[in-house]
Protein backbone atom coordinates (compact mmCIF):
# COMPACT_ATOMS: atom_id res chain seq x y z
CA UNK A 1 0.00 0.00 0.00
CA UNK A 2 1.21 3.53 -0.80
CA UNK A 3 2.21 5.80 2.04
CA UNK A 4 -0.67 7.80 3.48
CA UNK A 5 -0.07 11.51 3.94
CA UNK A 6 -0.54 12.64 7.53
CA UNK A 7 0.01 16.06 9.02
CA UNK A 8 -0.50 17.26 12.54
CA UNK A 9 -3.53 19.49 13.08
CA UNK A 10 -1.36 22.54 13.69
CA UNK A 11 0.57 21.93 10.47
CA UNK A 12 -2.41 21.40 8.24
CA UNK A 13 -5.50 23.03 9.61
CA UNK A 14 -7.23 25.88 11.36
CA UNK A 15 -9.28 26.40 14.50
CA UNK A 16 -11.78 29.08 13.40
CA UNK A 17 -12.72 29.69 9.77
CA UNK A 18 -14.89 32.43 8.28
CA UNK A 19 -16.24 30.97 5.05
CA UNK A 20 -17.81 32.50 1.96
CA UNK A 21 -15.64 35.64 2.03
CA UNK A 22 -16.17 37.71 -1.13
CA UNK A 23 -14.32 41.01 -0.57
CA UNK A 24 -10.96 42.25 0.66
CA UNK A 25 -12.65 44.26 3.42
CA UNK A 26 -14.49 41.21 4.76
CA UNK A 27 -11.28 39.18 4.65
CA UNK A 28 -9.39 41.85 6.57
CA UNK A 29 -12.20 42.05 9.14
CA UNK A 30 -11.97 38.28 9.65
CA UNK A 31 -8.20 38.47 10.13
CA UNK A 32 -8.51 41.41 12.53
CA UNK A 33 -11.08 39.49 14.58
CA UNK A 34 -8.60 36.66 15.03
CA UNK A 35 -9.92 34.07 12.58
CA UNK A 36 -7.40 31.42 11.59
CA UNK A 37 -8.74 30.93 8.06
CA UNK A 38 -11.00 32.35 5.38
CA UNK A 39 -12.97 30.37 2.82
CA UNK A 40 -13.11 31.43 -0.85
CA UNK A 41 -15.88 29.86 -2.91
CA UNK A 42 -15.16 28.69 -6.46
CA UNK A 43 -18.53 27.01 -7.07
CA UNK A 44 -20.23 29.13 -9.73
CA UNK A 45 -23.75 28.30 -8.57
CA UNK A 46 -23.11 29.47 -5.02
CA UNK A 47 -24.46 32.78 -3.70
CA UNK A 48 -20.94 33.36 -2.41
CA UNK A 49 -19.04 32.55 -5.59
CA UNK A 50 -16.09 34.80 -6.44
CA UNK A 51 -14.38 34.67 -9.87
CA UNK A 52 -10.71 33.73 -9.86
CA UNK A 53 -9.52 37.18 -10.93
CA UNK A 54 -11.39 38.74 -8.00
CA UNK A 55 -10.12 36.16 -5.49
CA UNK A 56 -6.43 36.85 -5.99
CA UNK A 57 -6.45 40.31 -4.31
CA UNK A 58 -8.45 38.85 -1.43
CA UNK A 59 -5.98 36.02 -1.02
CA UNK A 60 -2.94 38.26 -1.22
CA UNK A 61 -4.39 40.66 1.37
CA UNK A 62 -4.16 38.01 4.09
CA UNK A 63 -1.34 37.88 6.64
CA UNK A 64 0.72 34.70 6.62
CA UNK A 65 -0.99 33.45 9.78
CA UNK A 66 -4.39 33.20 8.05
CA UNK A 67 -5.01 30.04 6.03
CA UNK A 68 -6.57 30.60 2.60
CA UNK A 69 -9.03 27.83 1.84
CA UNK A 70 -10.58 27.28 -1.59
CA UNK A 71 -14.03 25.63 -1.75
CA UNK A 72 -14.75 23.42 -4.75
CA UNK A 73 -17.73 21.36 -5.88
CA UNK A 74 -17.07 18.56 -8.37
CA UNK A 75 -14.17 20.33 -10.06
CA UNK A 76 -11.42 18.31 -11.72
CA UNK A 77 -8.03 17.87 -10.07
CA UNK A 78 -6.43 19.84 -12.92
CA UNK A 79 -8.83 22.76 -12.51
CA UNK A 80 -8.33 22.81 -8.75
CA UNK A 81 -4.56 22.71 -9.14
CA UNK A 82 -4.63 25.61 -11.60
CA UNK A 83 -6.65 27.78 -9.20
CA UNK A 84 -4.44 26.81 -6.26
CA UNK A 85 -1.46 28.20 -8.17
CA UNK A 86 -3.27 31.29 -9.50
CA UNK A 87 -4.53 32.57 -6.16
CA UNK A 88 -1.95 30.97 -3.83
CA UNK A 89 -4.28 28.82 -1.75
CA UNK A 90 -3.04 26.95 1.31
CA UNK A 91 -5.88 24.46 1.52
CA UNK A 92 -8.56 22.87 -0.65
CA UNK A 93 -12.04 22.06 0.69
CA UNK A 94 -14.12 19.57 -1.31
CA UNK A 95 -17.91 19.91 -1.03
CA UNK A 96 -19.26 17.79 -3.86
CA UNK A 97 -19.17 14.14 -4.83
CA UNK A 98 -15.42 13.98 -5.40
CA UNK A 99 -14.04 10.42 -5.35
CA UNK A 100 -11.08 9.36 -3.19
CA UNK A 101 -8.94 9.22 -6.34
CA UNK A 102 -9.24 12.98 -6.76
CA UNK A 103 -7.76 13.66 -3.33
CA UNK A 104 -4.76 11.53 -4.25
CA UNK A 105 -4.29 13.58 -7.43
CA UNK A 106 -4.19 16.98 -5.71
CA UNK A 107 -0.88 18.78 -5.02
CA UNK A 108 0.79 17.52 -1.87
CA UNK A 109 1.80 21.01 -0.82
CA UNK A 110 -1.81 21.95 -0.05
CA UNK A 111 -3.85 20.38 2.70
CA UNK A 112 -7.27 18.92 1.89
CA UNK A 113 -10.50 19.15 3.88
CA UNK A 114 -13.28 16.76 2.90
CA UNK A 115 -16.74 18.14 3.63
CA UNK A 116 -19.53 15.72 4.52
CA UNK A 117 -23.23 16.50 4.81
CA UNK A 118 -24.44 14.52 7.82
CA UNK A 119 -27.97 13.18 7.47
CA UNK A 120 -29.96 10.26 8.84
CA UNK A 121 -27.22 7.76 7.94
CA UNK A 122 -24.86 9.47 10.35
CA UNK A 123 -21.10 9.27 9.86
CA UNK A 124 -20.90 5.67 8.62
CA UNK A 125 -20.69 6.64 4.92
CA UNK A 126 -17.90 9.06 5.77
CA UNK A 127 -16.01 6.28 7.54
CA UNK A 128 -16.26 4.12 4.42
CA UNK A 129 -15.10 7.03 2.26
CA UNK A 130 -12.04 7.56 4.44
CA UNK A 131 -11.18 3.87 4.17
CA UNK A 132 -11.28 4.20 0.39
CA UNK A 133 -9.03 7.28 0.61
CA UNK A 134 -6.53 5.30 2.66
CA UNK A 135 -6.49 2.61 -0.03
CA UNK A 136 -5.69 5.31 -2.61
CA UNK A 137 -2.70 6.47 -0.56
CA UNK A 138 -3.93 9.84 0.69
CA UNK A 139 -6.37 10.70 3.44
CA UNK A 140 -7.85 14.19 3.69
CA UNK A 141 -6.06 16.23 6.33
CA UNK A 142 -9.38 16.91 8.06
CA UNK A 143 -13.09 16.33 7.65
CA UNK A 144 -15.71 19.05 7.86
CA UNK A 145 -19.14 17.94 9.08
CA UNK A 146 -22.04 20.04 7.79
CA UNK A 147 -25.81 19.67 8.03
CA UNK A 148 -27.53 17.79 5.23
CA UNK A 149 -29.67 20.26 3.26
CA UNK A 150 -31.14 18.82 0.03
CA UNK A 151 -29.92 20.70 -3.02
CA UNK A 152 -27.27 22.58 -1.06
CA UNK A 153 -23.50 22.03 -0.94
CA UNK A 154 -23.03 24.02 2.26
CA UNK A 155 -23.82 27.46 3.66
CA UNK A 156 -27.49 26.59 4.13
CA UNK A 157 -27.69 27.83 7.73
CA UNK A 158 -29.17 24.51 8.84
CA UNK A 159 -27.83 23.24 12.19
CA UNK A 160 -26.08 19.88 12.14
CA UNK A 161 -27.04 17.10 14.56
CA UNK A 162 -24.44 17.70 17.24
CA UNK A 163 -25.43 14.77 19.43
CA UNK A 164 -25.21 12.30 16.54
CA UNK A 165 -21.82 13.64 15.48
CA UNK A 166 -20.51 13.37 19.03
CA UNK A 167 -21.75 9.76 19.35
CA UNK A 168 -20.21 8.63 16.07
CA UNK A 169 -17.03 10.66 16.04
CA UNK A 170 -14.84 7.55 16.27
CA UNK A 171 -15.92 6.70 12.72
CA UNK A 172 -13.63 9.46 11.38
CA UNK A 173 -10.63 7.87 13.08
CA UNK A 174 -7.70 10.19 13.66
CA UNK A 175 -8.84 12.87 11.21
CA UNK A 176 -9.34 16.32 12.77
CA UNK A 177 -13.04 17.22 12.79
CA UNK A 178 -14.23 20.67 11.80
CA UNK A 179 -17.84 21.44 12.70
CA UNK A 180 -20.05 23.54 10.42
CA UNK A 181 -23.77 23.93 9.89
CA UNK A 182 -25.84 26.78 11.28
CA UNK A 183 -23.23 28.06 13.72
CA UNK A 184 -23.36 31.58 15.13
CA UNK A 185 -22.00 33.53 18.06
CA UNK A 186 -25.11 32.49 19.99
CA UNK A 187 -24.63 28.73 19.68
CA UNK A 188 -20.98 28.03 18.87
CA UNK A 189 -19.95 27.61 22.52
CA UNK A 190 -22.62 24.97 23.07
CA UNK A 191 -21.67 23.24 19.80
CA UNK A 192 -18.03 23.05 20.88
CA UNK A 193 -19.03 21.75 24.31
CA UNK A 194 -21.15 18.94 22.81
CA UNK A 195 -19.08 17.88 19.79
CA UNK A 196 -15.58 18.83 21.02
CA UNK A 197 -14.39 19.50 17.46
CA UNK A 198 -10.89 20.49 16.40
CA UNK A 199 -12.23 23.51 14.53
CA UNK A 200 -15.39 25.39 13.57
CA UNK A 201 -16.54 26.90 10.30
CA UNK A 202 -19.17 29.63 9.90
CA UNK A 203 -20.79 31.16 6.84
CA UNK A 204 -24.34 32.49 7.10
CA UNK A 205 -24.17 33.02 10.86
CA UNK A 206 -21.91 36.06 10.44
CA UNK A 207 -23.58 37.65 7.41
CA UNK A 208 -25.82 40.66 6.79
CA UNK A 209 -26.86 38.93 3.57
CA UNK A 210 -25.35 36.06 1.54
CA UNK A 211 -21.78 36.93 0.64
CA UNK A 212 -21.56 40.04 2.81
CA UNK A 213 -20.15 39.63 6.31
CA UNK A 214 -21.01 41.68 9.36
CA UNK A 215 -17.79 42.68 11.10
CA UNK A 216 -19.42 42.78 14.53
CA UNK A 217 -20.89 39.29 14.13
CA UNK A 218 -17.53 37.97 12.94
CA UNK A 219 -15.79 39.43 15.99
CA UNK A 220 -18.44 38.00 18.33
CA UNK A 221 -18.23 34.57 16.74
CA UNK A 222 -14.45 34.37 16.93
CA UNK A 223 -14.43 35.52 20.55
CA UNK A 224 -17.11 33.01 21.56
CA UNK A 225 -15.37 30.16 19.77
CA UNK A 226 -11.96 30.96 21.26
CA UNK A 227 -13.40 31.10 24.76
CA UNK A 228 -15.13 27.75 24.27
CA UNK A 229 -12.01 26.08 22.91
CA UNK A 230 -10.03 27.45 25.86
CA UNK A 231 -12.50 25.83 28.27
CA UNK A 232 -11.98 22.45 26.57
CA UNK A 233 -8.26 22.73 27.26
CA UNK A 234 -8.58 23.91 30.86
Structure description:
- The structure is a single chain.
- The protein is an alpha/beta fold and 234 residues long.
- The protein contains 9 helices and 10 strands.
- It has one domain (14-233): Aldolase class I (TIM Barrel), CATH 3.20.20.
- It has helices at 9-12, 24-33, 52-60, 77-87, 100-105, 124-136, 162-168, 188-195, 215-233; strands spanning 16-18, 37-41, 67-72, 91-94, 111-118, 142-147, 177-179, 199-202, 207-209, 212-213.
- The strands form 2 sheets. An 8-stranded parallel β-barrel has the order 1-2-3-4-5-6-7-8.
- Strand 7 (177-179), helix 8 and strand 8 (199-202) form a beta-alpha-beta unit.
- Helix 2 packs parallel to helix 9 (215-233) and helix 8 (188-195) packs parallel to helix 9.
